Amino acid sequence: MSPVVKSNQNVKMDVKYLTLIIFICFLERIQGDLIKCPQNWGSTTTNALEGEHVRIRCKLCNLPVRSDFQTYGFNITWFKDTSKSGPVELSRETDRITFDGTSLGFWPAFENDTGRYFCFASNRTSRIMSINTTLNVQKNKREQNCHGSFYPFNSNVGESFTLRCPGLQEYSYKEDNIIWLKDCKHNVHTGTQYVIRKVEETSAGYYLCVLPLENGGVQYNVTRLLKLTTQEFVEPFKPKLIYPIEEQIELVLGEKREIECKAIFGYRMNEFCILYWIFNKNENDTVYESSERLVTEDNRKFLIRPLVFTEVKAEYLNQSFKCVLNCPDTYQIGNIIILERDKSETGPTVQLIKIIIITVATFIVVSVMYVRFKIYFVLCFRDFMSGDETLEDNKEYDAYVLLLKSHKTLLSAEEETFALELLPAILEQKFGYRLCIFERDVLPGGASASDILSYINKCRRLIIVLCAECMADDSSMYELMTGLHQALVERLIKPILIEYNPIGDITVLPQSLQLIWRSNRRVKWRSASLSQKSHFWKKLRYLMPEKHIKASEYSQNGRTIP
After folding, report:
1. What is the CATH number of the domain that holds 289?
2. Is 494 a member of any domain?
3. What is the phi/psi pair of residue 88, to 5°?
4. Sign of CA dihedral 533, 539, 544, 547
5. Do residues 395 and 268 both lie within one domain?
6. Are residues 158 and 67 part of one domain?
7. Which of 16, 255, 275, 279 is the most exposed place for a label (fewest CB within 10 A)?
8. What does 209-278 look like in DSSP terms, one character per residue?
């Protein structure tokens, strides 16, 4: 029996030793276990400028409490991973690189500090590897051009906007010391945030926030560059139904017609809006709503939904057809009532005839008005524009007055009184013209044929006053022939023919005068022509050169010449 007992004791001892060995191996496995974050899980990048302070923090992915590692017995070890030699432990703290709890600080950072950093948090039971933090240290060129990596911000003109310096969570206790610089030059504020109470177009630009820090008696800066862009505030456009609203449309029975329902959506289409028609639908109806289409006009979106009548029937008359715009923020209904229109009134031939009649009538009325009141229009236009065609033509007189007279005329002297007294009294004293009158301006006995031609060449118009008999004697014949030659042959002067007394038979006139008679350059004198407002003086002014008359010269225009 004793061998059996010994055997059972040995088995018990073997189980105890085996359990102890398994526990020791499990403990050693726990102590040597390394917990890693998944590859590229939550990796971060930190940008810094050379010569400035920068700080990176040890960030673990599987630790429930990450704020205070030392409380839970963790020790932090930092490594820098370089492409050449692999991970290198940062074993000791220096004046420039410091270990502050779970963070690694550079006072300041240099370009050769660029690389990938990670840390291990370890205690007696486990080691936890942090996520990777890539540090990029760039040359500091902001003093020259205020450019580089920046944080974009956008604001509407006229609104209030607050700028906050991003990425300074590690220094929240010192944010009151932040200095704000506009375009990296002008100090605009000191404090945690910079508030622009009313944004203007000039508010746009670069803003540099500078946080000064001291370490070992030396001041370092942490800077962030912000770029603010501004834009005009555009009020959101609310979709609107623009057709139909409340319409009555006349249609001819049997015709085909398409009516469009149209809604405007501003600069972009609202995908949650629908446009549709509501009407009584039957199987045999000849009306249906077509598919909607989107069009762009003047950079705005329009949605159109046509209602198609393949044949207008009597049952559609006085029936309501409603178009509905249904959007999340609006619901609008437009209504159309169909009325009957007489087919005879809508034929294309009838419409064309109406258009032709209206066009011809309008043309006739305009033509008659122009012919009847042309002189008045031209004179009004001259007075309004204040033009003057007599300024640069080197002419001394506006008109040469030629009185065709006979011996009988000299006895009555009516035409001579008109030509020598009334005509210059109105044209010269009232309208500012300058006349050349042979009987008045040429000294007696001092005129020759060459002198007459010289005077005519100095004038812009030739006024011919016909006498009662129109039979010129030798005293005026040369003047007449010279003037007519200048007017009709050489076209150096424009003639004006004044019919002082009615002429019964124009065949007694020279051929050249007959040509002027038949033209529109003839003015007929009547007893009513004494008034300056009469047609005689208006047409005479119309035929005379365009000349600016001062307002003072019009003061007596409405008076009647005695």
Report:
1. 2.60.40.10
2. yes
3. -125, 130
4. positive
5. no
6. no
7. 16
8. EEEEEEETTEEEEEEEEEEEEEE---PPPPPEEEE-SEEEEEE-TT--EEEEEEEE-TTS--TT-EEEEE
What contacts 295, CB < 8 A, 6 or more positions away? Answer: 301, 302, 304
List the domain range (segments joined by +) for residue 298.
Answer: 240-343
Number of domains in the chain: 5
- Do 390 and 373 belong to one domain? no
Please check whether residues 67 and 175 belong to one and the same domain: no
Task: Report the pLDDT value the prediction gives residue 557, as an integer from 0 to 100.
Answer: 40
pLDDT at 22: 47
Q: Are strands 287-289 and 300-309 parallel, antiparallel or unpaired?
A: antiparallel
Task: Assess whether 353 and 314 both reside in one domain.
Answer: no
Contact 57, 44 (CB under 8 A): no
**DSSP letters along 95-117, please?**
SSEEEETTEEEESS--GGG-EEE
Does residue 5 fall inside a structural domain?
no
Say if residues 211 and 222 touch (Cβ distance below 8 Å): yes
Q: What is the pLDDT of residue 209?
A: 94
- CATH number, position 429: 3.40.50.10140
Give yes or no: residues 189 and 98 share one domain.
no
Q: Which residue type does 518 have?
A: R
Last residue of a domain, one of 316, 343, 370: 343
Q: How far apart are CA 472 and CA 513, in angstroms?
A: 12
* Residue 26 falls inside a structural domain: no
Residues in CB range of 483: below 8 A, 6 or more apart? 400, 402, 456, 462, 464, 493, 495
Query: Would you call 498 exposed, middle or buried from its count of C-beta atoms within 10 A (0-12, 13-18, 19+)?
Result: buried
Say if residues 476 and 405 touch (Cβ distance below 8 Å).
yes
φ, ψ dihedrals at 222, nearest 5°: -120, 120
Span 46-101, pLDDT tens digits = 889 999 999 998 887 655 444 456 656 678 889 998 777 778 888 788 889 998 87
List, for the chain, all residue ranges whose pLDDT scores fall below the cut of 50.
1-7, 11, 13, 15-32, 64-67, 407, 409-411, 472-474, 551-562
d(CA 291, CA 502): 81
Do 315 and 355 belong to one domain? no
**pLDDT attached to residue 554:** 40
Mind giving me the DSSP string for 113-164? G-EEEEEEEE-SS-EEEPPPEEEEEE---HHHH--SS-EEEEEETTS-EEEE
In a shared domain, residues 503 and 514? yes
Is 1 inside any structural domain?
no
What is the model's pLDDT at position 551?
41
Token pair listed for 224: 């962030």
User: Under a CB-based contact definition with an 8 Å cutoff, are residues 513 and 472 in contact?
Assistant: no
49 CB-near residues (< 8 Å, 6+ apart): 109, 137, 138, 139, 140, 142, 148, 223
Short-list 441, 502, 451, 518, CA closest to 478 = 451
Task: Output the CA torsion 549→553→555→557 (10° steps).
Answer: -80
Query: pTM score > 0.70 for this model?
Result: no
